[in-house]
User: Which sequence fits this backbone?
């Protein structure tokens, strides 16, 4: 892996996982030392992260991790509803029923992924990513897929706000199963309705988590 790609992937993960919290200044020199690379790969990584909206210009040769705000979260979900309902409709029309029926069964059994042996819930989130990928493939729309991938970068960071809510994760697993089952049945209206229910509940869970975090006057959210 090229040094610039490694720097980009490491910093991107740190931002999405909140190891680098919103508002954090990230120094080019410090990151080069931490990652064991020259400053050029870090500079290239900063440029890519800036194009994705994860950082913005900071002091000197550094960048600042962009804020997460309640306003932005709501805007993301407005776009998410439009994109994901359309993707679900296309997948219901074009997808292989067996693929989504199997996904639905696995998602209904997601309790096995949400026990104490998998504290970071990685197995569950990998299954959700698999479902997203299958929907993208079934939809057969490159532009729609690209738009969703860009949005998912920011949603990954937002999702951390309610990630510790095990009851919500269990409910989300069944909601994902309902979406997959409707797609597998080829039922466009049911698939879109299932997506709307899931996204409404997901947004509410994030907003419910906000009071547990620190607010600034401009509604930005930082970890407490």
Assistant:
């Amino acid at each position: 892996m090229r040094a610039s790609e490694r720097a980009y992937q490491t910093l991107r993960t740190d931002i999405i996982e909140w190891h680098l919290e919103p508002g954090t200044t990230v120094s080019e020199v410090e990151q080069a030392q931490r990652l064991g690379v020259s400053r050029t790969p870090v500079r290239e990584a900063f440029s890519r992260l800036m194009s994705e909206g994860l950082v913005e210009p900071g002091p000197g040769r550094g960048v600042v991790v962009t804020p997460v705000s309640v306003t932005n979260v709501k805007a993301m979900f407005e776009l998410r509803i439009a994109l994901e309902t359309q993707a679900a409709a296309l997948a219901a029309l074009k997808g292989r029923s067996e693929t989504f029926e199997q996904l639905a069964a696995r998602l209904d059994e997601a309790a096995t992924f949400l026990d104490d042996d998998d504290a970071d819930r990685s197995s569950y989130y990998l299954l959700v990513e698999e479902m997203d990928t299958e929907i993208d493939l079934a939809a057969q729309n490159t532009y729609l897929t690209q738009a969703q991938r860009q949005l998912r970068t920011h949603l990954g960071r937002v999702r951390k706000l309610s990630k510790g809510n095990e009851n919500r994760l269990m409910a989300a697993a069944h909601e994902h199963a309902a979406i997959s089952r409707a797609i597998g049945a080829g039922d466009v209206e049911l698939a879109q309705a299932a997506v709307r229910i899931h996204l409404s509940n997901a947004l509410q869970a994030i907003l419910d988590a906000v009071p547990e975090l620190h607010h600034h006057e401009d509604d930005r959210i930082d970890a407490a």
Summary: Strands lie at 25-26, 55-57, 63-65, 68-69, 214-215, 220-222. The chain is about 65% helix and 5% strand. Residues 111 and 170 are 7 Å apart (CA to CA).
